[in-house]
Amino acid sequence: MDSRLTVALHSPGAVRYGFDGWQDIREDDTRPNSLGLHLVEIDTVRLRAGQQVDLTYRCGSRWVGRDFRVAVVSRDADG
Q1: Could you tell me the CA-to-CA distances from 23 to 18, 32, 53, 76, 79 in Å, in that order?
Q2: pLDDT confidence of 1, banded at 50, 70, 90?
């Protein structure tokens, strides 16, 4: 099953992210979409319930100055 976390920004920038306390850090530039948003898709297929994605972002050259955390949860039987 394909599993991704999509981060959408209002202007071009980049998303820096890691897993479970900023391990395996990566940084990807955003790509524009047809709705005028700028996206980064983070592949989460290998993550299991209880793990976390840590991230921050910048628009242009300015970092937001804050970290965000997204918890991975299991999908319930109803889908």
Answers
A1: 5, 27, 9, 27, 29
A2: low
State pTM to two decimals.
Answer: 0.88
Q: Are 47 and 53 in contact (CB under 8 A)?
A: yes
- Which H, E and C letters describe the chain, residue by residue? CCCEEEEEECCCEEEEEEECCCEEEEEEECEECCCCCEEEEEECCCCCCCCEEEEEEEECCEECCCCEEEECCCCCCCC
